[in-house]
Amino acid sequence: MADKKLTVAEILAAARKADTQGSGAPTAKEEASSPSEPSAPPSGESAEAAPAAPSAPAKGTPPKKAAAGGGRPSVAEMLAMARAGKQGGEAAEAPVAKPAAKPAVPAAKAASPAKKEAAAAKSAPIDTQSILSAARKGTKPGPMTKAEAEAKAATAVGDAAKKAKAKEAIVVPPMPVKPGYAKPGTAKAGKEQVGERRAFLFGMSALAVGFTALSASFAAWTFASIRFMFPNILREPPSRFSVGTPDKFPAGQVEERFKAQFGVWIVNTEYNGQQQIVALRTVCTHLGCTPNWLEAEQKFKCPCHGSGFYKDGINFEGPAPRPLERYAIQFASDGSIEVDKSRMFQEEMGQWNDPACYIPV
Ligand code: FES
Fold first, then answer.
1. Distance in Å, CA 285 to ligand 1 centroid
2. 241-360 belongs to which CATH class?
3. Which residues are CB-neighbours of 272 under 8 A, at least 6 positions away?
């Protein structure tokens, strides 16, 4: 019997009964309800529970509190107990039926605040502001209280106001005034002026080019006229020149110092059994090349076609048809040897016998 859980109706009934017993004479209402009490016994258990209620103060905690108050638990206390029993399950049975369930009561009491907080969190209002702000951030709307949402909204409004103020602070400078030539009315006139100026410059440039060309042609004509006044002159060394005293030309020697400047070899050689100093012309009698003196071979050799000449100028090899030519040679007033290129002597014509073309040593 004591293990069975009492319903709220049974507990209420027991409480009313206890109230009536505690207060003495029952009221008319209680009397009216008393006939129903006999009907409780048929339930059997409730009848037993009713007498157990008075004895409850000795077993459960609430009765102790009531005893501390100096009487049986009131209806409010009983209801609170019933509600606690409903929420706490077994914890509610403890004060009524099981004395052994005594320690479970504080646990149930400790658990109930946590559940209450969870329930309060679940039932906390999620307002539209919090949902919208969370959606803007890309996150799920969290459990935001209305106060938090209002604070956020206030912050957003403050930022928007700041931005608007910053926008208002931007001052746009005025447009610069256009100069006269940039005005639409004077643009055409300006273009015409530019065109006229370009035409003028082009005309001046053409005139300058023309005058420059005319001046250049006149200068060229003047130079040609002046040059015409002076005939072409071949600058040659003098035909007469001194080569030094006879002692500078020992027997058998070919002096080449005057070859480059005067085209003459001064040779001390023997011709027809007589030792002579002669001036040989450095021109090959074949086609006019300049032969070279080969000291090792003691001959003049023409590089063009290979004509060879002895030291006295007689040809002996190659295509050269005749001996080399001699220039006139004589003693000057100072005793030196003077060569005269204006006169030439040819051996094949018997001219080498002329004393004018040699100096006997
Ligand atoms: Fe000297 Fe011909 S020119 S050999």
1. 7
2. mainly beta
3. none
Instruction: Catalogue the E-assigned strands of the chain.
Output: 240-244, 254-255, 264-271, 274-281, 292-294, 299-301, 308-309, 315-317, 326-331, 337-345, 359-360
Please report, for the chain, the start and end positions of each structural domain, with discontinuous segments joined by +.
8-122, 241-360
Instruction: Tell me if 286 CB under 6 Å of ligand 1.
Output: yes
Does residue 39 have a pLDDT over 50?
no
Atom of ligand 1 nearest to the CA of 320: 4
> What mean pLDDT is predicted for residues 294-298?
95
Euclidean distance between CA atoms 132 and 141, whole angstroms: 8
Q: Which of 90, 7, 10 is nearest to 50 (CA)?
A: 10
Residue 91 burial by CB count (10 A; 0-12/13-18/19+): exposed, middle or buried? buried
Measured from the Cα of 291, ligand 1's closest atom is 1
Model confidence pLDDT, tens digit, residues 64-106: 444 444 456 677 777 787 777 655 544 444 444 444 444 444 5
Separation between Cα atoms, residue 7 and residue 83, nearest integer Å: 11
Per-residue confidence (pLDDT) for residue 91, from 0 to 100 = 43
Best residue for ligand 1 mutational test, from 282, 283, 289 (most atoms within 8 Å of Cβ):
289
Which residue in 207, 261, 211 sits closest to 238, CA to CA? 261
- Going by alpha carbons, the residue nearest to atom 3 of ligand 1 is 287
By most ligand atoms within 8 Å of CB, the mutation choice from 304, 315, 316 for ligand 1 is: 304
Does ligand 1 lie within 6 Å of residue 284's CB atom?
Answer: yes
Phi, psi for 338 (deg, rounded to 5): -120, 135
- Phi, psi at 319, each rounded to 5°: -80, -5
Verify whether ligand 1 is closer than 6 Å to residue 289 (CB atom). yes
CB-count burial class (<10 Å; 0-12, 13-18, 19+) for 36:
exposed
Per DSSP, the three-state class of 241 is strand
pTM of this prediction?
A: 0.40
**Residues constituting the chain:** 361
